[in-house]
Amino acid sequence: MNFHDQPNTFVGQVNLKVENLERALSFYQYIIGFKILEQTEGNAKLTADGKTILLTIEQPNDVTPRQRNTTGLYHFAILLPKRSDLANIVQHLYRSGIQFGSSDHLVSEAIYLSDPDGNGIEIYIDRPSSSWNWINGEVEMTVDPLDFENLLTEINQESWNGLPNETVMGHIHLHVSELQKTEEFYSKGLGFQVVCRYGSQALFISTGGYHHHIGLNTWAGVGAPRPSIHSIGLKSFSLVLANEEARNNIIKQLQALDYKVIEENGIFVTEDPSGNRIQLTV
């Protein structure tokens, strides 16, 4: 099943603020493997397939250093189509001298790193959904060591060629200030289902039975403040909805919960209780 297509709601693109656009572009092109779709003096739109924007990076004139212990981005997650693609990028990162972490989550295999501005990145592949273990409506996920010896047997190319065309934005994981109102916003407002709870510290939510399209945690501290609007980090992310009718229903649900939805240059935008900006697209 394709969890990143209609009728599911999923993350379409992530929009970041960085301190130095050229430095960020070099990293995202030559280390991560994106292609530039469009570029202006202060902004670049990045793609894997040459058509679909997955990531934008922007260098505001008044950008300030990244603020610690605030709400915002924990990481965004790039989903690769095949296990061999993950093996290939692991080899590429090792040869490039890039440090990264890793984990086996049962539902997926993942590596973790940060861009030059400290924005967190996950790159992962999913195991077949038929192998995921569901218990009382929650999917089982762990943080086990990744079996690199086995993974690297999948390498199928000597030279690395960047992200495959079928790459998508798999999910986003956010720092939030608390979980109760946050769960209400994402479930009753946006229509997501909670599929995993990590104690009282984190929620994982999805549509269509995915292991998670969004992760939400309080690891920056309960009551963590919003970062300055000028701070390096997450500017916004988009959710792709099935159609205009679905978007109109979502807007009504959010407004019934007293959350604002505004239109900015033809794009409908809302904010979760922690100030994370969300574009509602179709």
Give an overview in words.
The chain is of the alpha+beta class. It has a single domain (10-281), classed as 2,3-Dihydroxybiphenyl 1,2-Dioxygenase, domain 1 (Roll), CATH 3.10.180.10. The protein is 18% helix and 35% strand. The chain contains 5 helices and 18 strands. The chain has helices at 21-32, 83-95, 148-151, 180-189, 244-256; strands spanning 10-17, 35-39, 43-47, 53-58, 72-79, 101-104, 108-114, 120-126, 134-135, 138-139, 168-175, 193-198, 202-206, 214-217, 233-240, 261-264, 267-271, 277-281. The strands form 3 sheets. It has an 8-stranded mixed sheet. It is globular and about 55 Å long. The relative contact order is 0.20. The model has no long low-confidence stretch (mean pLDDT 96).
**Residue share in β-strands:** 35-45%
CATH hierarchy: architecture: Roll
CATH fold-type name? 2,3-Dihydroxybiphenyl 1,2-Dioxygenase, domain 1
* Unreliable runs: none
CATH class: Alpha Beta
Output the strand order for the largest sheet: 2-3-4-1-15-18-17-16
Task: Tell me, rounded to a whole number, the average pLDDT.
Answer: 96
Between the first and last Cα atoms, what is the distance in angstroms?
A: 20 Å
Organism: Metabacillus rhizolycopersici
Domain VOC: 10-126, 168-282
InterPro entries: Glyas_Bleomycin-R_OHBP_Dase, Glyas_Fos-R_dOase_dom, Glyoxalase_1_CS, VOC_core
Protein name: VOC family protein
